[in-house]
Write a structure and sequence with these properties.
Elements lengths: L6 H14 L23 E6 L9 H18 L8 H16 L3 E12 L2 E10 L1 H6 L6 E3 L4 E7 L2 E8 L2 E6 L3 H9 L10 H7 L5 E6 H8 L15 E6 L3 E7 L3 H9 L2 H10 L7 E5 L2 E7 L2 H40 L1
Antiparallel strand pairs: 1-2, 1-8, 2-3, 3-7, 4-5, 5-6, 6-7, 8-9, 9-10, 10-12, 11-12
Helix pairs in contact: 1-10, 2-3, 2-10
Length: 339
């Protein structure tokens, strides 16, 4: 219900994902060979399957997913390493009421970023226009029978959000007409060089991503976001996490730097395994001019990927919801004082 009220923090979280790189039910709406891709030459592409988390599955699986997502969110929240029982209950109810049983039920996320003037965030799922509209400033939103359109300013740019019962699209207002038309026409506009990403999406994984580091570095040159200098040798990254295999490809064309980096991965692999609660064991190997970080996978690990990614996004919603409650309490206190 409070989707639009946290739009700024949600958008900021998306750009944080770019800065951090790509590491970390319901049947999906998109078809394996037809998925929304309105940008031809993105430098970053990201896909997330929310439904794989199990939040929309049978009762026991859904409860397990909600509990794990709740625990992961608590890890992200500053100063709340040990939450009280009541805080955990409140957060769990927030996830359940607003996502699982509420008006905002995402199933799949697609994100394409070429530059600040050409990007698209697309959520497929089930969304209640009426309930969302009740929480909007009517001066900023235009409502018809089948959609809502909201314009907002972010980072000194005008952003447009289009909400329909099955889809939410966020993109620059200056380019929205072209992007929305391509999505409506169900066009997959990715250039042929992105065939690997297209093939990854055919299996409906928990997470898939691809980033051209050179292109991203050039694109971000005019912003305050920078790729860490110690990774300037990295040229391309791919990530796939499904129920058969989790694989991260790091393309490093320089032979010496590739070998040196490969030999320094021991601690990184330990940290990666720990991130997934040691439920798996990643290993690395050199193939051609790339380093591959791989592990055998299964449904539970795929679900863990999805739940951890969902928690990363939902932490911003929780913070915004908490801030709204504080602001509401202050307003109420002010009214009582004036009385």
């Amino acid at each position: 219900m409070f989707l639009i009220k946290f739009h700024k923090e949600l958008l900021i979280s998306i750009f944080l994902i770019l800065a951090m790189s790509l590491l970390p039910g319901f049947q999906s709406v998109s078809e394996p060979n037809r998925f929304p891709a309105p940008i031809e030459n993105p430098v970053v592409m990201l896909y997330h399957n929310f439904a794989i988390s199990g939040v929309y599955d049978d009762f026991m699986t859904s409860q397990s997913a909600i509990n794990e997502i709740t625990d992961e969110i608590k890890k992200y929240l500053a100063g709340k390493n040990s939450a009280s029982a009541s805080e955990k209950i409140n957060l769990r109810n927030l996830v359940k009421n607003q996502i699982v049983d509420g008006d905002f039920k995402p199933e799949e996320l697609f994100f394409y970023f070429e530059n600040p003037d050409n990007f698209a965030l697309i959520l497929l799922g089930n969304f209640s226009i009426e309930q969302i509209y009740k929480n909007l400033d009517s001066n900023n939103a235009k409502k018809t029978d089948d959609k809502l359109v909201l314009n907002l300013e972010l980072f000194e740019s005008l952003i447009q959000i289009m909400i329909s019962p099955k889809r939410i699209v966020l993109c620059p207002a200056s380019n929205s007409e072209i992007i929305l038309a391509r999505i409506e026409e169900e066009k997959t506009c990715l250039a042929d060089k992105f065939n690997a990403f297209t093939r990854m999406l055919k299996v409906k994984p928990a997470l898939a991503g691809e980033a051209t580091i050179d292109g991203l570095t050039r694109t971000l040159a005019s912003t305050s976001i920078r790729i860490p200098e110690e990774f300037d040798f990295l040229r391309h990254v791919r990530l796939l996490a499904d129920e058969q295999m989790t694989k991260i490809q790091l393309f490093i064309p320089d032979d010496e730097k590739r070998t040196d980096f490969s030999e320094s991965l021991t601690d990184s692999l330990k940290a990666l395994n720990a991130f997934f609660d040691n439920a798996t064991s990643f290993s690395s190997q050199l193939k051609g001019r790339s380093i591959y970080l791989e592990t055998d996978s299964e449904l539970e690990l795929e679900r863990k990927f999805s739940r951890k990614f969902a928690a990363f996004i939902l932490q911003f919603l929780e913070k915004t919801y908490h801030n709204q409650q504080l602001a509401g309490n202050r307003e109420t206190d002010g009214v009582n004082t004036n009385d």
